[in-house]
Write a structure and sequence with these properties.
The protein is an alpha+beta fold. The strands form two sheets. A two-stranded antiparallel ribbon has the order 1-2. A two-stranded antiparallel ribbon has the order 3-4. The radius of gyration is 27 Å and the shape is rod-shaped. The model has no long low-confidence stretch (mean pLDDT 83). It binds zinc ion (ZN). The site of zinc ion has 8 residues, from loops.
């Protein structure tokens, strides 16, 4: 015969309230990664990386960026 024993695992005694559920989930949020600003053009860049808009890093031009790309 097929044995049906439902009480083999932990069963919550009470339903979790909306407040308790929301309190628990306050820790479950996406974190914004590290964000910095280019010292030359002010564009939002990632730290320790050359600016993708003007190609500057520590006030020096390290990458040549085409004029067409600068406009766009
Ligand atoms: Zn820049």
């Amino acid at each position: 015969m097929l044995e049906l024993n439902i009480q083999r695992f932990a069963v919550p005694f009470r339903r979790t309230s909306k407040t308790k559920k929301r309190m628990r989930r306050t820790h479950l949020k996406k974190e914004v990664g590290a964000i910095d600003k280019c010292s030359k053009c002010g564009a939002v860049i990632r730290p320790h990386r050359a600016c993708t808009k003007c190609g500057n890093y520590k006030n020096k031009e390290v990458i040549k960026i085409k004029e067409e790309e600068k406009v766009a």
